[in-house]
Amino acid sequence: MSRLSPTGRKALLTLHLVTSLGWLGADLVLLTLGVAGLRGADPESVYPTAGLLVTYLFAPLSVAVWLVGVASALLTPWGLLRWRWVLVKFAITTVMLGLVLLLLTPTVRRLGDLAPDLTARDRLDLVIPPAVSSTLLIIATVLSTYKPWGRLRRATAPASRRAVPAGRRA
Ligand code: HEM
Hints:
Distance between the termini: 20 Å
Bound molecules: protoporphyrin IX containing FE
Shape: elongated
Helix content: over 70%
Number of domains: 1
Number of strands: 0
Number of helices: 5
Order of helices and strands: HHHHH
Radius of gyration: 19 Å
Strand content: under 5%
């Protein structure tokens, strides 16, 4: 099912790349701030800055990445539930969206409020989650370019009429 003109599809792919890789970039900035805080940088600069970044960039981008990613699947011949690499990326992004909105955002804002009275244990809350999520997003990027593992189920349409996604063509 492809409902987009070639120009529309390129525009959607561009939006998908800008949002998803922008999300990875923002995540790496959060990790950098977390490492700086752990190494003794001024907590009254580091944690309120991280709170602003999470609230106004990272959390909104999480929602945008999910929506544009789902649109990129549903509006192209890839589909959401046809190819394992798409489904795994969907799962990663959905779990991350939930964790960012329900756990990471309130935690990082609390760190901003508590600075400068933070323990080393508190400071790890801005190191471990961004390290794990950046790794997941790098895995999502690799899955996107290599597209491993094949299809989940066969198409029912005759082979001659079946839409073959551009990335699968020889
Ligand atoms: C809801 C989650 C996501 C879904 C359903 C999804 C789905 C898709 C689909 C269907 C395409 C192909 C688009 C086309 O050919 O026009 C694509 C491309 C791509 N996606 Fe995602 N994506 C998701 C999240 C992500 C994330 C989190 C990243 C990286 C951080 C990412 C990185 C990429 C890249 C780099 C491409 C370009 C691959 C290429 O053109 O060879 N995606 N995605």
